[in-house]
Amino acid sequence: MNARAAIRAVRAGAGALEALAVAGEGRVLAWFPAACYVEAPNGLLALAAPGVWEGPLHLLLDRPVPRSAVGSVVEARGGLLRGPGWTVRVAGASAWSGAVPSPVAVRRAAVAIRHALTGIVARSRVEPSVVARAAELVVRGDLEELAALLAGRGPGLTPAGDDALAGVLLVTRAAAGESVEPRLERIAAAARTSRTAGAFLRWAARGQSLRPAHELLAAATRGDARGAARWARLLAAVGESSGADLALGMGWAAAAIA
User: In terms of pTM, does the model score above 0.90?
Assistant: First the structure.
């Protein structure tokens, strides 16, 4: 793409804004038609194509993601993110943050959350051999051991095990409130996995994930079973299995609360 300054960011997750808050150089970590993952001066973000859901690391663009070779240098400065042959105007993008219901509301809706997720995790690629053990660890509240079991488990930029762990962290944070964040952040930081997966885990520990996950929680807490089921299906459709893996972990946490 050779139209410098022609690409506009329309929405920016909290993690993306944090990553770009410091001027300087970074590099491209991975490129896919739907997203380009960038190690920016102050963290990791993903340039996301139109149609990709909002998320903490996502910088949603008004046009397709510019093709970039892995390792290419990028520069963040003056509200712009420049890469090889392209420029994204970040200034003016609306900030996005996933709404988190109150802990009391989440705990009361735990059965509804679990019910909405039932049956939509068939696409999950979490190894069947660890599912029962993982669910047991969540019930016991041993999330440190859960992270040791799941982190880095599976192929891909964000392994299935990490996506499931992110689901557990998200619902745990939602149900327990801000007081649990330090513990969850320590768990996320200690996870032995890829940079990309680690960044998603750290934001899940802060109660931030993909929009369908937040919409599912919101629908369940207001008693909208049909809406919760709809958002669960949309979540399960994300990626090859990432959404379903996230949903699996959310279901474990909801079951433990219920």
Answer: yes
